[in-house]
Amino acid sequence: MMNDLVNHTAHQTRLDLGHRDCQILIASRSTSAVDSLQQVLAPLPKTKIKSQVMVNGHTDPLDGLERMPDLLVVRLDTNWEVELEALNARPATQRPPMIIVSAESDPQVMRHSMQAGARDFFVEPFDPEEVLRSVEHLSREVQDNPANQDARITVVMNAKGGSGASLIASNVAHALVQECDESVALVDLDLQFGSLSYYLDLNLKHGIKEALDNVDDLDAIALDGYLVKHDSGLRVMGVEEGRMILNDEVSSERLRHLIALMARAHHHVVIDVPRQIDLITSTVLEMADQVVIVTQQSITHLRDTARLMDVLRDDLEIPNEHLDVVVNRYQKNAMITRTEIENALKQRSLICIPNDFKNVSESLNDGIPLLDIARRAPISKAMMDLCEVVKGNKDTEENTVLGRLFAKLKGA
Ligand SMILES: Nc1ncnc2c1ncn2[C@@H]1O[C@H](COP(=O)(O)OP(=O)(O)OP(=O)(O)O)[C@@H](O)[C@H]1O
Ligand SMILES: [Mg+2]
């Protein structure tokens, strides 16, 4: 799956997004072998090590994984032939780079391992230093390959229905393409009443239903066929025109696979989700680098926002720093001030999107993004500020030491 995504057809060549942790999977039939390899690899920086102990009839070291690792370390023993066969049965593009450790010294194991694409081979007893160096070398290679650096995944969710999540998801995704020249996929996961195609005046001939049905055969190039292109270069995926999908028609595993595929081919994946916690939304919430919670200035909005944040933190275990609150339709002279919202939610990095009936109505009625309608309007500027947060640059004015000081002096 990794290499076929190198030559994606996204809006532009992907830029270096900075290194993310290299995900290493250690697979073996033997728990003690997994443990000792885990100890050997423990000193590696910027890596996340997972393990898979193959039991009973399981022979494929990559079987049942939610997400393909960046690098695979397989420890083979008497069952080596079947395990290598299982790996070989996967298309080369759906196997991560692999290092083999063998308990068998039979030269056939090495020959077959190399045929299966192993990048290095060790026989037990091995020199731990050598294995460590080899894995480190390969993980650096993986991390240095820009094609292996996944997109940032941003999920936009309302704290209360109608707060503006769809307007914000579509406009921030558009602004990322337009202003930052990034390749962006926008996904409408409101499978019954999605509105993004109207907001961007697009006809979704192909979409998420077909993409989910075919996800096992998709690579980045085929995936692009299910994304509808906006004039700006933004790619959009939603339910096909005139269709409606029921939640239980969607397998979370397929959805996870589809979003991971999109993340491999773009700089950003922005997902508009309905306001509910179910299998679909929790699947993408767990994958998100960032969750943008959209609320407004009222007591009921604030109560629902606090509740949603508790659920995301406590039940879905999303770290607090992955949560950002956007106050939409913000008005300076409203009853509830920005400071009161910050204090109530214990959030210092609120982003406020002004209320702008005229430009928003025009944008939504004509299906034209705000930046194209009124690029100098405060609402468009606020969308651009939100882009910085979505990009992971949280140095908004409110977030700097000086910004916080000013906010305090202003009466926070
Ligand atoms: N900043 C704003 N200024 C003025 N009006 C706005 C603003 N944001 C949203 N609206 C109004 O709110 C309506 C709902 O917006 P949107 O479709 O983004 O909501 P939503 O939160 O996605 O709704 P749902 O919960 O149904 O998915 C829009 O039709 C628009 O009229
Ligand atoms: Mg919506």
Automatic annotation (TrEMBL):
InterPro entries cross-referenced by the UniProt entry: AAA_dom (IPR025669), CheY-like_superfamily (IPR011006), P-loop_NTPase (IPR027417), ParA/MinD_ATPase (IPR050625), Sig_transdc_resp-reg_receiver (IPR001789)
UniProt GO molecular function: ATP binding; ATP hydrolysis activity
Source organism's superkingdom?
A: Bacteria
**Which GO CC annotations does the UniProt entry carry?**
cytoplasmic side of plasma membrane; cytosol
> GO biological process: what's one of them?
negative regulation of cell division
Give start-end ranges for the coiled-coil region(s).
Answer: none
Annotated Response regulatory domain ranges read 23-139
PANTHER family the UniProt entry points to:
SEPTUM SITE-DETERMINING PROTEIN MIND HOMOLOG, CHLOROPLASTIC-RELATED (PTHR43384), SLR0110 PROTEIN (PTHR43384:SF13)
Identify this protein by name. Answer: AAA family ATPase
Organism encoding this protein = Pontibacterium sinense
